[in-house]
């Protein structure tokens, strides 16, 4: 059973070379959806698209922590991780400077790291059903 859904675009870099394999054609993945896959960690494939990934859906899994590599995804605008087993957000979330939407509802998050304010584009945070104290 494959849980991955991708939205892709093709970008052709070199147009003068006749053979497709030498054209420098690169696959750009902007959306990945791993919702309801029974995952315990963020799949490593996600990091292959860290330059182009804009939306990542990890809804309804059993993920307990977010790996540091995830925060290298500089183009990420939407991160959806509701209904998982997160107990905290790492301070490295501040490196997601283009993040606009964050859904961390239905987790065990007690507080937000102080430096989340470095996410200047962040306009929507869904954090319901968490024991947030501050």
TrEMBL record:
Source organism, top-level taxon: Eukaryota
Gene Ontology process terms (BP): cell-cell adhesion; establishment or maintenance of epithelial cell apical/basal polarity; neurotransmitter receptor transport postsynaptic membrane to endosome; neurotransmitter receptor transport, endosome to postsynaptic membrane; positive regulation of neuron projection development; receptor clustering
Keywords: Leucine-rich repeat, Repeat
SUPFAM superfamilies: L domain-like (SSF52058)
GO molecular function: protein kinase binding
InterPro entries named among the record's database cross-references: Leu-rich_rpt, Leu-rich_rpt_typical-subtyp, LRR_dom_sf, Synaptic_Scaffolding_LAP-MAGUK
Classification via Gene3D superfamilies: Ribonuclease Inhibitor
GO cellular component terms attached to this protein's record: adherens junction; axon initial segment; basolateral plasma membrane; postsynaptic density; postsynaptic membrane
Protein name: Leucine-rich repeat-containing protein 7
């Amino acid at each position: 059973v494959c849980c991955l859904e991708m939205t892709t675009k093709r970008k052709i870099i070199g147009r003068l070379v006749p053979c497709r394999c030498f054209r420098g054609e690169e696959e750009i993945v902007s959306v990945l959806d791993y919702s309801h896959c029974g995952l315990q960690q963020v799949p490593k494939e996600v990091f292959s698209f860290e330059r182009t990934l804009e939306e990542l859906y990890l809804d309804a899994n059993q993920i307990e922590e977010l790996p540091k590599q995830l925060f290298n995804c500089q183009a990420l605008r939407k991160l959806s991780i509701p209904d998982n087993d997160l107990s905290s957000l790492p301070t490295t979330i501040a490196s997601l400077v283009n993040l606009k939407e964050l859904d961390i509802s239905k987790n065990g998050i007690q507080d937000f790291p102080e430096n989340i304010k470095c996410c200047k584009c962040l306009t929507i945070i869904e954090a319901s059903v968490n024991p947030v104290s501050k």
